[in-house]
Design a protein that fits this description.
It is a single chain. By secondary structure, the protein is α/β, with parallel strands linked by helices. It contains 6 helices and 7 strands, in the order αααβββαβαββαβ. 45% of the residues lie in helices and 16% in strands. The protein has a 5-stranded mixed beta sheet, sandwiched between helices. A two-stranded parallel ribbon has the order 5-6. Helix 1 packs across helix 3 and helix 2 runs antiparallel to helix 3.
Length: 161
């Protein structure tokens, strides 16, 4: 039963986040409670789907910088202008083991902007003639750490040697 408290905690956070949205609060204020509850349920289910993808996709990761926080899930990205401390979905994903790249300490923004993107679907995109070069998440982390980024849940530690 070790996983039950975490699941209850996840649902509690997702429900509270959904209920705090301004639109849902306004619906409740105007007496449209049933609609607010339905939208909140849909939001929680969508966010649970994002958490499931974050746990299953090999290149899923969270990245946080001065421009906000991004939860990269292959071809889907969920983002907020807020830091991870104010983005509960991303914080939950990291708490559940999704790699987290904190680029707030990076000072060389030009070098960071010139980094390749992370492969979205796990396919290899190393051909030099491609217009948009992609690298694996572990290779990307190797590059961004050299610029001063901080890594949590580092997938490189799981490599077999």
């Amino acid at each position: 039963m070790k996983g039950i408290p975490m699941q209850t905690g996840v649902l509690r956070v997702l429900r509270a986040t959904a209920a705090s949205w301004w639109r849902h609060r306004e619906l409740r204020r105007t007496g449209q409670t049933a609609l607010a509850q339905r939208l909140e349920r849909e939001t929680v289910l969508r966010d649970l789907g994002y958490l499931k993808q974050a746990a299953l996709l090999p290149n899923a990761h969270v990245i946080c910088g001065e421009g906000g926080t991004f939860l990269h899930l292959g071809w889907t990205t969920v983002s907020s202008f807020a830091p991870i401390e104010r983005f509960p979905l991303a914080a939950l994903a990291v708490a559940r083991g999704t790699p987290f790249i904190d680029i707030r300490p990076v000072t060389d923004v030009i070098a960071f902007a010139n980094l390749p993107r992370v492969i979205r679907d796990g396919s290899d995109d190393t051909e030099p003639w491609r217009s948009c070069r992609s690298v694996s998440l572990t290779t990307y982390i190797d590059m961004v750490v050299k610029l001063g980024a901080i890594i949590t849940n580092d997938p490189r530690l799981c490599r077999s040697t």
